[in-house]
Description:
Helix content is about 40%, strand content about 25%. It is of the alpha+beta class. It has a four-stranded antiparallel sheet with strand order 1-2-3-4, with helices on one face. Strands 6-5-7 form a three-stranded antiparallel sheet. Helix 5 (about 180-190) runs antiparallel to helix 6. The chain is elongated, with a radius of gyration of 31 Å.
Amino acid sequence: xxxxxxxxxxxxxxxxxxxxxxxxxxxxxxxxxxxxxxxxxxxxxxxxxxxxxxxxxxxxxxxxxxxxxxxxxxxxxxxxxxxxxxxxxxxxxxxxxxxxxxxxxxxxxxxxxxxxxxxxxxxxxxxxxxxxxxxxxxxxxxxxxxxxxxxxxxxxxxxxxxxxxxxxxxxxxxxxxxxxxxxxxxxxxxxxxxxxxxxxxxxxxxxxxxxxxxxxxxxxxxxxxxxxxxxxxxxxxxxxxxxxxxxxxxxxxxxxxxxxxxxxxxxxxxxxxxxxxxx
Length: 279
């Protein structure tokens, strides 16, 4: 019995040592796990603000990252983006993306980043999957956007009040047209709102078609020569459902045309200034 009594204190000391070692291990683990957080937060913050150069500088391939981040924002026509950090360790971080796609609405997804630590410096391991999970080398993201056709409007006997009618969509090519020259001519010949058209041109990407007005053939033919002489003014022919005349049943049928600021607000977030909407 005296022998057992002498051995009890060392056992308690040993147990205390084990507990202390465990606590120290936990503290070390927590400290090393959070060391990447500042770098990831700076990367996501710069990406959110559209500062591709600053975000790319925090990766292991700045040139490829900057080109891809710029392409992500421009090709998807992103109005705003918020990339928020969810978790971070030494080798991986996860984030939540909340992206506003112009003319399409909000897009939310969960993403992740692989992290590297070289000589004590944390960097984002760049790959296309940073932009969206599952993207591989040589792949990127593109968007397509289509609007549904106008629904049929029938009289009380079921006959259509709107019939297919040839029209010409008069527009301009952004980047090639000079608004100071083209807009006054378009206003004089077609009666468009110059402020609306100027704003639409300013907000369009170079090379894109900016619709200005849709004219029936009888209204277009007399001004075709004048408009055709203006650099950057272009035409697209189409067939759309229209009433017999521009004023036929207007109070009942309404009309569709290039969006005004008021019509755009009423149409909601799924439409853009270059769309034809109900007026």
